[in-house]
Structure formats: structure tokens, C-alpha cells
UniProtKB/TrEMBL annotation:
Coiled coil: none annotated. GO terms for biological process: proteolysis. The lineage of its organism: Bacteria, Bacillati, Actinomycetota, Actinomycetes, Pseudonocardiales. It is an enzyme of class 3 (hydrolase). This is Aminopeptidase N. Residues 1-26 form the signal peptide. Belongs to the peptidase M1 family. Residues 309-454 form the Peptidase M1 membrane alanine aminopeptidase domain. It comes from Saccharothrix variisporea. It comes from the Bacteria. PANTHER family: AMINOPEPTIDASE N (PTHR11533:SF297), PROTEASE M1 ZINC METALLOPROTEASE (PTHR11533).
């Protein structure tokens, strides 16, 4: 062996030793949850993921999903073992190229790397698996949706563990490469940029997608089946991929008349929120969802949103989430108002833009819609609890909260707050309290009473925000936009489990 080879071997040996903790007593198991009070078992402790490479095969006829996910992560403590969130049957795991032990129960995949992992070390985890995702539920709920021609991996707050092992919480974002092989003639849609297809010798085709910006696990999605896929370029030069199920029936053209306007709506929202934070745009319309979801770069819509014609309000809602929910994510699920209140207020802004009702008219009408004794006013958008995570109050009273802020601080400060929030928390996570602090800093006002009233106090506030605007009117007529906004929210409100 040459001296150079010896030195290389010695360096490699030293490097490998750095991956492992020196003493058993220093290493501890990673926590089975990240510490979210709403979902104690969501996420895991002890490591931070930087990238997922998900390489799968899917057979629509049997709903069998098989393949390998490679996870690149860095340890945040000395680890003796760690958890992944995953439901499907695993056949093997390797950690840093060594065969690892594992057990599975209740959606927790516990990995024993056989040697302790030192804090701050880079870790490569390779998980191989094969199973039928539709066989699994969590607390009686199945997030994986089998369809007549394929499947949909789309849901919130949980979907990832039905198709890839992961650290399932918005505070651990990562980049993604997703590649899925399916029988020829079947399409696969996912997040980010489309990296083409590759024909395989067995009569299958592999579809490849890449998400180059940090992405929460629940925002990673798959839509597999028979789709019309449309590719174009947005005015800002970004790729646009829209996909429409071939089973939309009479909702097909109204859906296209809505989703094809995604770049226009994105351009408008940039004026209010700042630069669009991601590398691609688009949308998917598929039956069997029952709601809309802001999958990163490519929101997904149930065709029911378009049953009465084009509906650009739901598109504005989901595109707004690209800033508020996707780029700036919740620190804990209790902070869900930062997602839904903001996206709902984007509908008010779009209504103003298209001349179908001002934000003030929409706010007043919405305030009047719910009587004081309605249960609507008993749900607290600032801390709704798991049972009401997607309650209408989180959306509608959440939007009223933002309008109250706008009225209190004025338009200049209000839109400065929205833009700074999106920029300063970009690709990160945040709390309601941090938003309040920013609003106070920008406006120079003390806003505790406003947020306490609208987010944290049960009961109907004494007056709608900006009510003095209509002091001489007996009632506010329904804005032209409101039928579409209510249709949107009726479907969104139904997404509760």
C-alpha cells in the first residue's frame, strides 16, 4: 500500500469515527415527537433533514407502492437511535451505509444505527419499502386517496407518512427529488420543476420532479392517474405546470378558466406580499379530494370548486399560501391562523382588484353573516385546538382580524407588515406572537387589545373592523364576490378531521 493510500485510509477512518459518539452514556434516543402540543407525535427529535430523494414505483391496479427514500440529515444531539414518521412496511434500512435495525408501531419507525451518532454529523439514511398505502389510517382517517385511475397523496396536516419516511413537522423543511415509475399512459404530478420522463424497458415510464426550495413534509404531494398536463411559461419566466384529471366532466372548462390564471393571480399578489418565493407555479384539479390544498408550487383543487363556473377566489386563496403557510410556515399547529387568515384575506384583496367588492364591504358582510349567538364566535383563531384546526372561524374571523389590523394601522403600514413578514420569515417558521411584535414595530402602535379581541376572546366583537364606514347604512349588500368566497369556504371548512 502506498503512503498516499495509507494517508487516505487514515483520513477516511478518522472521518468515520467522527460520525459516531465516543461513549454510550453521551448518546440518547431522539424524541418521538418534535414537541407540538396539538400533535405530540408529529415530527421527531435529534436530527434535521436537508434533503429527501424519493424513488418509487406505483401500480394503480393494485395500489402497491414500492421503492427507496434516501434522507440526508444532520444530527442535533448525540443519538443512540432515532425515529422517522412512516406507516408502510419497511424491508431494510441503512445508516451511513451500514445495515441498521428497526421496529415499527403506530406510525413510528424507530431506527437503531448500531453505533451512536455524534452531534453535528452528516447522516445518510436509506429506507426501502413496499406496501399498499390505502390499507392504513391514523386515528380512523386515511390521507392516501385511491382513485379509479390512480391515487392522490394530498392532505393536511398529515400525508407524508403514507408514502415516504420523514420528519413530519413544518419546522423541519427540506428540498426534494421525487421520481415515480408508473405504467405507460399514466401521469405523475408533484411539486417544483418537471425534470422530464424516462421510458423503462418493462413498459413503464418514470416521472421526475424537483423542489429546490425548503418544503414542509405535508406540502409534498403526488397526483397519479389520467391527466391532461399543460406546460407554459409565466410572465416572470418561471415554468408553469397545470394538470387536469380526465374525469372532471362538466367542471373541466370552468376549472381551466380558473387555474390557467394562476400566473396572473400570482403577479397581483406579489404587489401586496412581495416577490413570489418559489421556482415554479401551477395547479392540479382532481376528483376525490374534497378540498383545496396549497401544495408547494402546485396547489390542488377538488372540481367541486368550479361546479358553478370559474372560481378565481379559491386560486387566490391557495396561491396566497405560497407566501403564508408554505414559505412562512407555522412553528406549531396552534399558529394555523398565520396560514388560513392570511389566505382568506387574499380573497378580499382579489375581490377589490377585480371590482367585485372592497375588503371593507366583504369584512362588514362577513361580520353581519354570523349572529352573536353563533358557535362561530366561540372558536378562537389564535388557538383553535385540534378539533377546530380548519374551522370556518380560523378562515373568516382570521380574515376579519387582518382587516381590523389594516383599519388600525393604515394601508402603508399594513402592507409593509405583510411584505416584511414574508421576507423576514422566508423559508422558515413563525408564531402568532412574532407577527404581533412585527406589526407593533412597523406601526409604532400597541396592538395587544386588537389581537386579543379578534384572535383570543370568545364572543362576537362589538363592531366590525372599519364599521364607521357604513354608519349611515342600514345594512351592507352582499358584495358580488361573496357568493364565490362562501362557496370556497364551504368546501374548505369541510376539510376537518
Amino acid at each position: 500500500m502506498s503512503l498516499r493510500a495509507k494517508l487516505t485510509l487514515g483520513t477516511a477512518t478518522a472521518a468515520s469515527l467522527l460520525l459516531f459518539a465516543g461513549t454510550a452514556s453521551a448518546a440518547e434516543p431522539g424524541a418521538p415527537g418534535i414537541g407540538d402540543p396539538y400533535y405530540p407525535n408529529a415530527g421527531n427529535g435529534g436530527y434535521d433533514v436537508s434533503h429527501y430523494d424519493i424513488r418509487l414505483n406505483y401500480q394503480p391496479a393494485t395500489d402497491n407502492l414500492s421503492g427507496t427514500t434516501t434522507i440526508l440529515a444532520k444530527t442535533t444531539q448525540d443519538l443512540s437511535r432515532f425515529n422517522l414518521d412512516f406507516l408502510l412496511k419497511v424491508s431494510s434500512i441503512r445508516v451511513n451505509n451500514r445495515v441498521a435495525g428497526f421496529t415499527q408501531a403506530g406510525g413510528e419507525l424507530v431506527v437503531d444505527p448500531k453505533q451512536n451518532l455524534r452531534k453535528g454529523s452528516d447522516v445518510t439514511i436509506v429506507v426501502t419499502y413496499s406496501d399498499v398505502p390505502s390499507n392504513y389510517d391514523v386515528d380512523g382517517y386515511k390521507s392516501w386517496k385511491r382513485t379509479p385511475d390512480g391515487a392522490l397523496a394530498i392532505d393536511e396536516p398529515d400525508i407524508a407518512q403514507w408514502w415516504f419516511p420523514n420528519n413530519n413537522h413544518p419546522t423541519d423543511k427540506a428540498t426534494y427529488d421525487v421520481s415515480v415509475a408508473v405504467p405507460d399512459g399514466v401521469e405523475v404530478i408533484s411539486n417544483g420543476t418537471f425534470n422530464g420522463t424516462a421510458k423503462q424497458i418493462n413498459g413503464w415510464t418514470r416521472w421526475r420532479w424537483r423542489s429546490a426550495k425548503p418544503q414542509a413534509s405535508y406540502l409534498a404531494f403526488l397526483a397519479i392517474g389520467q391527466f391532461e398536463v399543460r406546460q407554459s411559461t409565466a410572465p416572470n419566466g418561471q415554468p408553469v405546470v397545470n394538470a387536469y384529471s380526465l374525469n372532471l366532466g362538466e367542471n373541466d372548462l370552468p376549472a381551466k378558466a380558473s387555474v390557467e390564471r394562476t400566473p396572473e393571480i400570482t403577479e397581483f399578489l406579489e404587489e401586496n406580499f412581495g416577490p413570489y418565493p418559489f421556482e415554479a407555479q401551477g395547479g392540479v384539479v382532481a376528483p376525490g379530494i374534497g378540498f383545496a390544498l396549497e401544495n408547494q408550487t402546485r396547489s390542488t383543487y377538488d372540481p367541486g370548486f368550479f361546479r358553478r363556473g370559474a372560481n378565481t377566489y379559491v386560486v387566490a386563496h391557495e396561491v396566497a399560501h405560497q407566501w403564508y403557510g408554505d414559505s412562512v410556515s407555522v412553528h406549531r399547529w396552534r399558529d394555523i391562523w398565520l396560514n388560513e387568515g392570511f389566505a382568506s384575506y387574499a380573497e378580499f384583496l382579489w375581490s377589490e382588484h377585480v371590482g367585485e367588492g372592497t375588503a371593507q364591504e366583504n369584512a362588514q358582510y362577513l361580520y353581519d353573516l354570523y349572529p352573536a349567538d353563533s358557535d362561530f364566535w366561540q372558536v378562537l383563531p389564535g388557538d383553535p385546538g385540534t378539533a377546530d384546526l380548519f374551522h370556518g372561524a380560523v378562515y373568516d374571523r382570521g380574515a376579519l382580524t387582518l382587516h381590523a389590523l389594516r383599519v388600525a394601522v393604515g394601508d402603508d403600514a399594513f402592507f409593509t407588515i405583510l411584505k416584511r413578514w414574508a421576507q423576514e420569515k422566508k423559508y422558515s417558521d413563525a408564531t402568532i406572537e412574532e407577527f404581533i411584535a412585527l406589526a407593533e414595530s412597523v406601526s409604532g402602535q400597541q396592538l395587544d387589545e386588537l389581537f386579543q379581541t379578534w384572535l383570543f376572546t370568545p364572543g362576537k366583537p362589538a363592531a366590525a373592523p372599519g364599521a364607521a364606514t357604513f354608519a349611515t347604512r342600514a345594512a351592507v349588500a352582499e358584495p358580488k364576490s361573496f357568493q364565490k368566497i362562501r362557496e370556497t369556504h364551504e368546501l374548505l371548512d369541510a376539510h376537518q378531521h
